[in-house]
Design a protein that fits this description.
The structure holds 2 protein chains of 2 kinds. Chain A is α+β, with helices and mostly antiparallel strands. In chain A, 23% of the residues lie in helices and 37% in strands. Chain A has a single domain (27-143), classed as Immunoglobulin-like (Sandwich), CATH 2.60.40. Chain A has a 5-stranded mixed β-sheet with strand order 2-8-7-4-5, covered by helices on one side. Chain A has a 3-stranded antiparallel β-sheet with strand order 1-3-6, with no helix packed on it. The relative contact order of chain A is 0.21. The chains are: A alpha+beta, B mainly beta.
Chain lengths: 150, 97
């Protein structure tokens, strides 16, 4: 009985030790609150990653050239870079940051999201590589009907 | 939240829609209500994080999004949770097909 209890405890302790490791995701809203208030894309990238210097390659951003409804502009993001995080910015709204994905070894950079854009502008996607470098992709589009009222 | 998760050639693709008004600060001010939008979306399969997304007010109303990941099997349960600015949360389970 003693031994059984001891073993049971060991399994429980091991499981408890594993849980924080598997759920270790970063909440960028708490860790980098300033990045969400930045008004320009460069400023937001600098607040999030410490530098706004990026290499403009390896990131594909796809949107319609003219978005009929600014309330839901479809944005597709894809890349083959081994990455730690992916961040999406735009310069059409009062603040720049849209969202930040935290990646792990199971993730594939193949996202589709819908965002709001008040007016025509440029969407910038920054990929933080595992090599520590920042890669970016851009797409400029027209918005027929601004959608911040939505 | 509505979730559709499909497995093909070892890659699981998930399409999801969260029901949320996503009120920006500007709109909330005009309407005289408090701004509220989803700030974090998280998805797990077998206790492993497969999506972790910090978001701002500029996702569309009732945001739709698609993402992919490796390492899951058909029949696995996927659990997604969102949290908004006021602290409300919603959790939905679905099964990978």
């Amino acid at each position: 009985m003693e031994r059984r209890k001891f073993l049971g405890l060991g399994v429980f302790a091991a499981a408890a030790a594993l849980i924080p490791a598997t759920l270790s995701a970063e909440d960028y809203r708490k860790t980098k609150p300033d990045a969400w208030k930045a008004h320009t894309v460069e400023d937001a990238i600098a607040k999030l990653y410490g530098t706004s210097t990026t290499i403009e390659q390896g990131v594909t951003v796809t949107t319609p050239d003219v978005a009929a409804n600014g309330g839901a502009v479809p944005v597709d993001i894809s890349s083959d870079i081994a990455a730690k995080s992916v961040a999406v910015f735009q310069n059409a709204n009062p603040e720049s940051a849209v969202c930040v994905f935290t990646l792990n070894e199971t993730s594939i950079i193949d996202y589709a999201i819908k965002i709001k854009m008040k007016q025509s502008g440029t969407i910038t996607v920054v990929v933080e590589g595992r090599d520590g470098k920042l890669y970016s992709g851009k797409k400029t589009l027209s918005v027929a009907l601004g959608g911040c009222e939505g | 939240m509505e979730i559709k998760a499909k497995l093909k050639d070892g890659i699981t693709t998930v399409k999801a829609m969260a029901k949320h008004p996503m009120l920006t600060y500007d709109v909330a001010k005009k309407q005289g209500v408090e701004a509220n939008f989803i700030t974090h979306i998280n998805a797990t399969v077998n206790n492993k994080v497969v999506l972790d997304m910090s978001t701002s007010q500029f996702l569309s109303k009732n945001p739709i999004f698609k993402f992919s990941f490796k390492g899951a099997a058909a029949g696995d349960k996927i659990t997604m949770t969102w949290v908004d600015l006021l602290g409300n949360t919603e959790t939905t389970d679905s099964v990978i097909k």
